């Protein structure tokens, strides 16, 4: 069934594991997320990025996600990923999202607090949980130097102020991960994570988690990460499987012959991630 995120993260906090938050790019990936969750008996978060909303439209995503969730025995939440404005959050809540992220990380601390509080006011009224972001999570185009780390990474003291002033439900932080594929191996600032967790107490969200080695992910979960975002690894598995079909049979014209195996590949990678996050058999 379709559920909220607050309860999922509360249980993850108590159980010391993380819930996988998987980006849905299309129908096959929506189906793959719930199929994988069902197979692993795991709670799961399905999330829609700005790109997904542009591609499919908010109502298509909500309708597909709701149907997939209704057909699934394990808890499935629908989350807005990197929400850009108060208006977009309201649109998604109206459409049926059960959780939202408001990404004010480009704003000043004061402006980020103000925007996040405004979103919390409406979200609280309808029982939707809110994730905010503090610090700048890199894109792979950014080459971060050591001196830039302190400027980009989440400041623990700021995080403490941010969480106590907003009362936000979960916090996305910058500790060395980046969206997309990595050039080398990312190195996470786990000390910073530990400090932040000790000061804020709430569930921490790790973005850009595709390409982060499993043991680093497990270490981050050990220090308080309760939601792990994965998009790129699903895209890679999905597209590689589709490419294989087309390479083996360049004259194939049936989209289902290409997207069926792609969906299977997505299910497999999502199941692997669920086990790394320790959320298998936690439904
Ligand atoms: O937010 C990060 C997603 O992984 C990528 O988003 O679907 O807008 O390209 P996109
Ligand atoms: P990746 O694409 O690196 O997995 O990042 C996903 C993400 O953080 C979505 O918000
Ligand atoms: Zn992200
Ligand atoms: Na990544």
UniProtKB/TrEMBL annotation:
Active site: 81
PROSITE patterns named among the record's database cross-references: ALDOLASE_CLASS_II_1, ALDOLASE_CLASS_II_2
Enzyme class: lyase
Keywords of the record: Lyase, Metal-binding, Zinc
Cofactor details (free text): Binds 2 Zn(2+) ions per subunit. One is catalytic and the other provides a structural contribution.
NCBIfam families: cbbA, fruc_bis_ald, PRK12857.1
Protein name, UniProt field: Fructose-bisphosphate aldolase
Name of the encoding gene: fba
